[in-house]
Amino acid sequence: MSRLKQILTAYTDDGDMSPFIIAEMSGNHNGSLEQALKIVDAAADAGADAIKLQTYTADTMTLNIAQGEFVINDPKSLWKGRALYDLYAEAHTPWEWHAPIMQRARERSIFCFSSPFDSTAVDLLESLDVPCYKIASFECIDLSLIKRVAATGKPMIISTGMATIQEIAEAVDTARTGGCPHVVVLKCTSNYPAPPEHSNLLTIPHMAQLLGCEVGLSDHTMGIGVPVAACALGATVIEKHFVLNRADGGVDAAFSAEPDELASLVQEAHRARQALGQVKYGPTDVEVNARNRRRSLYIAQDMQAGDVLTKDNLRSIRPGLGLPPKYLEVLIGRRISKSAKRGDRMSWDLIG
């Protein structure tokens, strides 16, 4: 089980390797509280552990300027030509919605928390008693915000899209020295959608060793292959943008998972974590009986004492209860010391 999940639920380590799955609502509510509540229900039905919001307003994010660097000009961006202010105004979750969304999450027995983007957002979320916090990739370098969140004494998840090792280390150190009891770092590629080949998932075990903390993935790729692979590399927390139906549109809908995909992710991520196990050779407990289906040496014809073993009367066949096949060449040409029937297991007693 994810250490974060243990902390939030007060569970002890019972051997459950389930990753902590977060459904990111972002702006996929399309400005409708009813839609937001349906997203909570769908995330719970899919088996997610948490629903995550983003807490900001257009004014806490940028200036109301629709020209120059305040307009997205990347030709590959989903939001090309959009003014930052207008985009944030469309995508934000109204602060008065936070309480009813969190109440619905409690009713559905899943966690609800958020990414604050300034100290006023932290104040709001503290008034709602969120269980933990998420620092978005673009805020990873905002050490003042991280310090403010750390002061709440609650667990913190930090996304690391674009961040250098030094920037990640500074963020984690700031969280720890600021009073954060548990830090989770998420590997992230800040592209929307992100090409799978840019995921660089091998960074996950390296970050875990380097930083000495729980590591997961904030995923912006299409499908579930990348997050499942991340779990196989040790990721314990998976965040995935979530929408009821991509066809409904929305600022993040194009790279968000639909309910059936999220349900598959929950199931397959759990399987991937279970499959990690430990370094082990030889039969596992569930393989012990399967050894009988190996080949081994059996008498293939009725024989009398003194007869010579040949490739006709001594064969390597199933089941695997006789001598191992590696002794076939050693035994050919030897005489048996007592009679044997067709179907008898070959044993050293027959030539002893």
From TrEMBL:
- Broadest EC class assigned to this enzyme: transferase
SMART domains named in the record: SAF
Q: Which SUPFAM superfamilies match?
A: AFP III-like domain (SSF51269), Aldolase (SSF51569)
EC number annotated for this UniProt entry: 2.5.1.97
UniProt cross-references to InterPro entries, sorted A to Z: AFP_Neu5c_C_sf, Aldolase_TIM, PseI-like, PseI/NeuA/B-like_N, Pseudaminic_synth_PseI, SAF, SAF_AFP_Neu5Ac, SAF_PseI/NeuA/NeuB
Bilayer-spanning residue ranges: none
Tell me which domain of life the UniProt entry assigns to the organism this sequence originates from.
Answer: Bacteria
Give start and end of each AFP-like domain: 296-352
Q: Which UniProt keywords apply?
A: Transferase
Keyword Acyltransferase on entry: no
A molecular function (GO) held by this record is: N-acylneuraminate-9-phosphate synthase activity
Q: Which GO terms describe its biological process?
A: carbohydrate biosynthetic process
User: Pfam families attached here?
Assistant: NeuB, SAF
User: Which protein, by its recorded name, is this?
Assistant: Pseudaminic acid synthase
The organism's taxonomic lineage, starting at the top: Bacteria, Pseudomonadati, Pseudomonadota, Alphaproteobacteria, Caulobacterales
Q: Which gene is the coding source of this polypeptide chain?
A: pseI
